[in-house]
Design a protein that fits this description.
Elements (H helix, E strand, L loop, with lengths): L1 H16 L14 H4 L10 E10 L7 E12 L4 E12 L4 E12 L1 E2 L5 E14 L28 E13 L3 E8 L18 E13 L7 E13 L2 E12 L2 E8 L12 E10 L2 E10 L10 E10 L16
Antiparallel strand pairs: 1-2, 1-15, 2-3, 3-4, 4-6, 5-6, 6-7, 7-8, 8-9, 9-10, 10-11, 11-12, 12-13, 13-14, 14-15
Protein backbone atom coordinates (compact mmCIF):
# COMPACT_ATOMS: atom_id res chain seq x y z
CA UNK A 1 0.00 0.00 0.00
CA UNK A 2 2.81 2.40 0.88
CA UNK A 3 4.46 1.70 -2.47
CA UNK A 4 1.23 2.57 -4.30
CA UNK A 5 0.89 5.81 -2.33
CA UNK A 6 4.48 6.70 -3.11
CA UNK A 7 3.95 6.18 -6.84
CA UNK A 8 0.82 8.31 -6.76
CA UNK A 9 2.65 11.08 -4.92
CA UNK A 10 5.45 11.08 -7.45
CA UNK A 11 3.05 11.15 -10.39
CA UNK A 12 1.14 14.09 -8.91
CA UNK A 13 3.97 16.22 -7.59
CA UNK A 14 6.90 15.40 -9.90
CA UNK A 15 6.12 18.16 -12.42
CA UNK A 16 6.32 20.77 -9.62
CA UNK A 17 9.52 19.78 -7.86
CA UNK A 18 11.52 18.03 -10.58
CA UNK A 19 14.21 19.80 -12.55
CA UNK A 20 12.58 21.30 -15.63
CA UNK A 21 13.40 19.74 -18.97
CA UNK A 22 12.04 19.96 -22.48
CA UNK A 23 9.80 17.21 -23.86
CA UNK A 24 11.49 14.94 -26.38
CA UNK A 25 10.41 13.37 -29.65
CA UNK A 26 11.69 10.07 -30.98
CA UNK A 27 10.86 11.18 -34.53
CA UNK A 28 12.79 14.44 -34.17
CA UNK A 29 13.27 14.87 -37.92
CA UNK A 30 9.52 14.68 -38.46
CA UNK A 31 9.39 17.71 -36.14
CA UNK A 32 12.24 19.73 -37.66
CA UNK A 33 11.23 23.16 -36.39
CA UNK A 34 11.35 21.83 -32.82
CA UNK A 35 14.75 20.28 -33.51
CA UNK A 36 16.34 23.54 -34.67
CA UNK A 37 15.24 26.90 -36.17
CA UNK A 38 17.62 26.28 -39.09
CA UNK A 39 15.13 23.81 -40.55
CA UNK A 40 12.52 26.55 -41.08
CA UNK A 41 11.81 26.76 -44.79
CA UNK A 42 14.26 23.97 -45.65
CA UNK A 43 11.85 22.76 -48.34
CA UNK A 44 10.97 23.84 -51.86
CA UNK A 45 7.51 25.19 -50.97
CA UNK A 46 5.28 25.07 -47.90
CA UNK A 47 4.96 22.42 -45.20
CA UNK A 48 2.52 21.63 -42.40
CA UNK A 49 3.21 19.04 -39.69
CA UNK A 50 1.66 17.56 -36.57
CA UNK A 51 3.30 15.41 -33.90
CA UNK A 52 1.75 13.68 -30.89
CA UNK A 53 3.57 11.73 -28.17
CA UNK A 54 2.04 9.67 -25.36
CA UNK A 55 4.82 8.75 -22.95
CA UNK A 56 4.56 6.14 -20.18
CA UNK A 57 0.79 5.48 -20.60
CA UNK A 58 0.76 2.88 -17.80
CA UNK A 59 1.94 5.38 -15.19
CA UNK A 60 -0.69 7.17 -13.02
CA UNK A 61 -0.26 10.61 -14.57
CA UNK A 62 -0.31 11.68 -18.19
CA UNK A 63 2.79 12.76 -20.10
CA UNK A 64 1.40 13.98 -23.42
CA UNK A 65 2.94 16.35 -25.94
CA UNK A 66 1.41 17.78 -29.11
CA UNK A 67 3.20 19.96 -31.63
CA UNK A 68 1.93 21.69 -34.77
CA UNK A 69 4.08 23.68 -37.19
CA UNK A 70 4.02 25.36 -40.58
CA UNK A 71 6.97 26.73 -42.54
CA UNK A 72 7.74 28.13 -45.97
CA UNK A 73 10.70 28.83 -48.19
CA UNK A 74 11.05 32.43 -49.39
CA UNK A 75 13.26 32.02 -52.43
CA UNK A 76 13.68 35.73 -53.23
CA UNK A 77 15.56 36.46 -50.02
CA UNK A 78 17.18 33.01 -49.50
CA UNK A 79 15.21 32.63 -46.28
CA UNK A 80 12.78 30.40 -44.48
CA UNK A 81 10.00 31.30 -42.03
CA UNK A 82 8.26 29.01 -39.57
CA UNK A 83 5.54 29.08 -36.94
CA UNK A 84 5.43 26.44 -34.21
CA UNK A 85 3.08 25.73 -31.30
CA UNK A 86 3.67 23.09 -28.64
CA UNK A 87 1.58 22.00 -25.66
CA UNK A 88 3.02 19.65 -23.06
CA UNK A 89 1.00 18.22 -20.15
CA UNK A 90 2.71 16.30 -17.33
CA UNK A 91 1.36 14.65 -14.20
CA UNK A 92 -2.11 14.22 -12.75
CA UNK A 93 -2.14 17.87 -11.68
CA UNK A 94 -1.95 18.88 -15.37
CA UNK A 95 1.26 20.88 -15.17
CA UNK A 96 1.25 22.27 -18.70
CA UNK A 97 3.39 24.37 -20.97
CA UNK A 98 2.10 26.18 -24.04
CA UNK A 99 4.81 27.52 -26.31
CA UNK A 100 4.31 29.52 -29.51
CA UNK A 101 7.31 30.50 -31.60
CA UNK A 102 8.32 32.35 -34.76
CA UNK A 103 11.40 31.00 -36.56
CA UNK A 104 13.72 32.40 -39.21
CA UNK A 105 16.55 30.77 -41.18
CA UNK A 106 18.89 32.10 -43.86
CA UNK A 107 20.37 29.93 -46.60
CA UNK A 108 24.06 30.56 -47.42
CA UNK A 109 25.67 28.81 -50.38
CA UNK A 110 29.32 28.09 -49.56
CA UNK A 111 29.99 26.28 -52.83
CA UNK A 112 28.17 24.17 -55.39
CA UNK A 113 27.46 21.36 -52.94
CA UNK A 114 27.68 22.78 -49.42
CA UNK A 115 25.19 25.11 -47.73
CA UNK A 116 25.04 26.77 -44.32
CA UNK A 117 21.76 27.69 -42.59
CA UNK A 118 21.89 29.85 -39.43
CA UNK A 119 18.55 30.14 -37.65
CA UNK A 120 16.82 32.09 -34.87
CA UNK A 121 13.70 31.43 -32.84
CA UNK A 122 11.54 33.73 -30.67
CA UNK A 123 8.96 32.22 -28.31
CA UNK A 124 6.22 33.06 -25.85
CA UNK A 125 5.67 30.42 -23.14
CA UNK A 126 2.83 30.03 -20.67
CA UNK A 127 2.95 27.52 -17.83
CA UNK A 128 0.08 26.55 -15.58
CA UNK A 129 -0.96 24.07 -12.91
CA UNK A 130 -4.37 22.84 -11.75
CA UNK A 131 -3.60 22.93 -8.02
CA UNK A 132 -7.06 21.55 -7.14
CA UNK A 133 -5.87 18.19 -8.53
CA UNK A 134 -2.85 18.03 -6.22
CA UNK A 135 -2.80 15.18 -3.70
CA UNK A 136 -0.63 15.48 -0.60
CA UNK A 137 0.49 12.76 1.82
CA UNK A 138 -1.80 14.08 4.57
CA UNK A 139 -4.81 13.49 2.31
CA UNK A 140 -3.99 9.82 1.73
CA UNK A 141 -4.64 8.68 5.29
CA UNK A 142 -8.17 8.51 6.68
CA UNK A 143 -7.17 9.43 10.24
CA UNK A 144 -5.15 12.49 9.28
CA UNK A 145 -6.48 15.82 10.54
CA UNK A 146 -3.81 18.04 9.00
CA UNK A 147 -4.57 20.18 5.97
CA UNK A 148 -2.17 20.72 3.08
CA UNK A 149 -0.48 24.08 2.95
CA UNK A 150 -0.30 25.54 -0.55
CA UNK A 151 2.05 28.30 -1.69
CA UNK A 152 0.35 31.68 -1.85
CA UNK A 153 1.36 32.22 -5.42
CA UNK A 154 -0.08 29.36 -7.46
CA UNK A 155 -0.66 31.12 -10.77
CA UNK A 156 -0.04 30.94 -14.50
CA UNK A 157 3.21 32.47 -15.67
CA UNK A 158 4.13 33.91 -19.07
CA UNK A 159 7.70 34.35 -20.27
CA UNK A 160 9.59 35.06 -23.47
CA UNK A 161 12.47 32.99 -24.77
CA UNK A 162 14.87 32.59 -27.68
CA UNK A 163 16.97 30.01 -29.52
CA UNK A 164 19.64 29.88 -32.21
CA UNK A 165 21.07 27.16 -34.43
CA UNK A 166 23.47 26.38 -37.26
CA UNK A 167 23.08 23.68 -39.90
CA UNK A 168 25.71 22.56 -42.42
CA UNK A 169 24.42 20.61 -45.41
CA UNK A 170 26.16 18.68 -48.15
CA UNK A 171 24.98 16.18 -50.73
CA UNK A 172 24.75 13.19 -48.41
CA UNK A 173 25.59 14.38 -44.89
CA UNK A 174 24.65 17.09 -42.42
CA UNK A 175 25.91 18.49 -39.11
CA UNK A 176 23.98 20.85 -36.87
CA UNK A 177 23.84 22.38 -33.43
CA UNK A 178 21.29 24.45 -31.56
CA UNK A 179 20.87 26.22 -28.23
CA UNK A 180 17.39 26.65 -26.71
CA UNK A 181 16.16 28.75 -23.76
CA UNK A 182 18.80 31.44 -24.22
CA UNK A 183 16.80 33.77 -21.93
CA UNK A 184 16.43 31.04 -19.27
CA UNK A 185 12.83 31.95 -18.33
CA UNK A 186 11.40 31.22 -14.91
CA UNK A 187 9.28 28.05 -15.11
CA UNK A 188 8.01 27.81 -11.54
CA UNK A 189 4.28 28.20 -10.83
CA UNK A 190 4.71 28.04 -7.05
CA UNK A 191 6.14 31.48 -6.41
CA UNK A 192 9.76 30.30 -6.41
CA UNK A 193 12.39 31.29 -8.95
CA UNK A 194 13.61 28.40 -11.07
CA UNK A 195 15.12 29.18 -14.46
CA UNK A 196 14.89 26.76 -17.34
CA UNK A 197 18.45 25.58 -18.13
CA UNK A 198 19.77 26.09 -21.65
CA UNK A 199 19.42 23.02 -23.83
CA UNK A 200 22.28 22.26 -26.22
CA UNK A 201 21.71 19.87 -29.11
CA UNK A 202 24.26 18.45 -31.55
CA UNK A 203 23.06 16.27 -34.41
CA UNK A 204 24.59 14.73 -37.52
CA UNK A 205 23.97 12.07 -40.12
CA UNK A 206 25.11 10.35 -43.28
CA UNK A 207 22.90 9.10 -46.12
CA UNK A 208 24.06 6.10 -48.16
CA UNK A 209 22.50 5.48 -51.57
CA UNK A 210 21.93 2.13 -53.20
CA UNK A 211 20.81 2.29 -56.83
CA UNK A 212 18.34 -0.28 -58.06
CA UNK A 213 18.36 -2.10 -61.37
CA UNK A 214 18.04 0.05 -64.49
CA UNK A 215 14.48 -1.11 -65.16
CA UNK A 216 13.38 0.21 -61.77
CA UNK A 217 12.82 3.86 -60.90
CA UNK A 218 13.04 3.23 -57.17
CA UNK A 219 16.07 3.90 -55.02
CA UNK A 220 16.96 2.48 -51.63
CA UNK A 221 18.75 4.59 -49.05
CA UNK A 222 20.20 3.83 -45.64
CA UNK A 223 20.72 6.78 -43.31
CA UNK A 224 22.87 6.75 -40.15
CA UNK A 225 22.17 9.50 -37.64
CA UNK A 226 22.91 10.64 -34.09
CA UNK A 227 21.31 13.24 -31.83
CA UNK A 228 22.93 14.41 -28.55
CA UNK A 229 21.20 16.66 -26.01
CA UNK A 230 22.49 18.34 -22.84
CA UNK A 231 20.21 20.26 -20.48
CA UNK A 232 21.02 21.05 -16.86
CA UNK A 233 22.42 17.87 -15.33
CA UNK A 234 20.93 15.60 -17.99
CA UNK A 235 22.70 14.16 -21.03
CA UNK A 236 21.03 11.98 -23.65
CA UNK A 237 21.98 10.55 -27.00
CA UNK A 238 20.03 8.77 -29.75
CA UNK A 239 21.87 6.71 -32.35
CA UNK A 240 20.14 4.79 -35.10
CA UNK A 241 19.44 4.24 -38.75
CA UNK A 242 16.65 4.54 -41.32
CA UNK A 243 16.02 2.27 -44.31
CA UNK A 244 13.98 3.88 -47.07
CA UNK A 245 12.48 2.03 -50.02
CA UNK A 246 9.66 4.08 -51.50
CA UNK A 247 7.05 4.41 -50.13
CA UNK A 248 8.12 2.70 -46.86
CA UNK A 249 10.55 3.87 -44.16
CA UNK A 250 11.76 1.64 -41.33
CA UNK A 251 13.96 2.82 -38.49
CA UNK A 252 15.49 1.71 -35.21
CA UNK A 253 17.03 3.88 -32.48
CA UNK A 254 18.95 3.24 -29.27
CA UNK A 255 18.79 5.89 -26.54
CA UNK A 256 21.71 5.87 -24.12
CA UNK A 257 25.23 7.15 -23.55
CA UNK A 258 27.01 3.78 -23.73
CA UNK A 259 30.54 5.19 -24.09
CA UNK A 260 30.24 7.38 -20.97
CA UNK A 261 29.98 5.12 -17.94
CA UNK A 262 28.69 7.75 -15.50
CA UNK A 263 25.72 8.56 -17.76
CA UNK A 264 24.85 5.14 -19.20
CA UNK A 265 21.18 4.40 -18.39
CA UNK A 266 19.97 2.01 -21.16
CA UNK A 267 16.93 4.23 -21.57
CA UNK A 268 15.01 2.89 -24.58
CA UNK A 269 15.02 1.09 -27.90
CA UNK A 270 12.71 2.73 -30.44
CA UNK A 271 11.20 1.31 -33.62
CA UNK A 272 9.71 3.34 -36.47
CA UNK A 273 7.57 2.67 -39.51
CA UNK A 274 6.63 5.40 -41.97
CA UNK A 275 4.66 5.67 -45.17
CA UNK A 276 4.96 8.29 -47.91
CA UNK A 277 2.31 8.99 -50.52
CA UNK A 278 3.18 11.83 -52.89
CA UNK A 279 3.43 14.89 -50.61
CA UNK A 280 1.87 13.23 -47.55
CA UNK A 281 3.83 11.39 -44.85
CA UNK A 282 2.71 9.48 -41.79
CA UNK A 283 4.93 7.83 -39.18
CA UNK A 284 4.49 5.77 -36.03
CA UNK A 285 7.14 4.89 -33.48
CA UNK A 286 7.21 2.98 -30.22
CA UNK A 287 9.81 3.36 -27.47
CA UNK A 288 10.49 0.11 -25.64
CA UNK A 289 11.79 0.96 -22.16
CA UNK A 290 15.08 -0.73 -21.22
CA UNK A 291 15.69 0.84 -17.80
CA UNK A 292 14.55 -0.48 -14.40
CA UNK A 293 11.11 0.98 -15.21
CA UNK A 294 10.65 -1.59 -17.99
CA UNK A 295 7.51 -3.20 -16.51
CA UNK A 296 5.86 -0.01 -15.22
CA UNK A 297 5.77 2.57 -18.00
CA UNK A 298 4.16 1.07 -21.09
CA UNK A 299 6.86 2.67 -23.26
CA UNK A 300 5.93 5.61 -25.47
CA UNK A 301 3.78 5.98 -28.58
CA UNK A 302 4.40 8.70 -31.13
CA UNK A 303 2.58 9.65 -34.33
CA UNK A 304 3.67 12.18 -36.96
CA UNK A 305 1.85 13.66 -39.96
CA UNK A 306 3.19 16.08 -42.57
CA UNK A 307 2.17 17.50 -45.92
CA UNK A 308 4.18 19.52 -48.41
CA UNK A 309 2.71 22.06 -50.80
CA UNK A 310 5.05 22.20 -53.77
CA UNK A 311 5.38 25.39 -55.83
CA UNK A 312 7.15 26.28 -59.06
CA UNK A 313 10.60 27.71 -58.49
CA UNK A 314 12.92 29.72 -60.71
CA UNK A 315 15.97 28.24 -59.05
CA UNK A 316 16.65 24.65 -58.10
CA UNK A 317 16.33 24.09 -54.37
CA UNK A 318 19.07 22.22 -52.52
CA UNK A 319 17.32 19.18 -50.98
CA UNK A 320 17.96 18.37 -47.34
CA UNK A 321 19.64 14.95 -46.86
CA UNK A 322 18.06 14.53 -43.38
CA UNK A 323 15.32 11.91 -43.04
CA UNK A 324 11.80 13.19 -42.42
CA UNK A 325 10.77 10.79 -39.65
Amino acid sequence: MKKILHILSVALLLPIFAKAQDPQFTQFYSNPLYQAPSFAGAISGYRASLNYRDQWPKMPGKLNTMNVAIDANIDKINSGLGLIALRDVAGSASYSNLSVGLLYAYNIRLNRRIYLRPGLGFYMNQRSLDYEKLLFASQMYANSTSQPVLPEDFSNITAFDGSCSLLLLARNYWVGLSADHLMQPNVSVTGYDYKMPIKYTVFAGLKLHKLERLISTKRQTVTLAANFRHQGVTNQMDVGLYWYYSPIVLGVWYRDLPLIKDYSRRDALAFLIGYEYESFKIGYSYDFTLSHLITNTGGAHEVSLSYKFEIERKRKFKSIPCPEF
